[in-house]
Amino acid sequence: MIPNLDWMQHAACAGLDPRAFFSIGNHARAQVNAARRVCAACPVRQQCADWAIQTGERHGVWGGMSQQQLRQRRRRFTSRAKTSTRAAS
Ligand code: SF4
Prior knowledge:
3 helices; mainly alpha; binds iron/sulfur cluster; 52% helix
């Protein structure tokens, strides 16, 4: 099944340099905070977060989440998925 990515057309970061969302070096914290400010006003923040979790994105700011927040949310998502699978079997 081909995923519906129409939401990306409405991204607040469309047209921005993607490197702004992938922090590196000494200014990583400031860069993440700047990216998250863009995300705060994004109308497709939830879709972006869901996409990052479902596709296993490990780097960058997605849905207004830092890499650490994304990792934590993915753990919860994976844990819930395993619980649901066990309950269904
Ligand atoms: S939530 Fe942030 S990274 Fe995701 S589409 Fe919106 S602006 Fe881009």
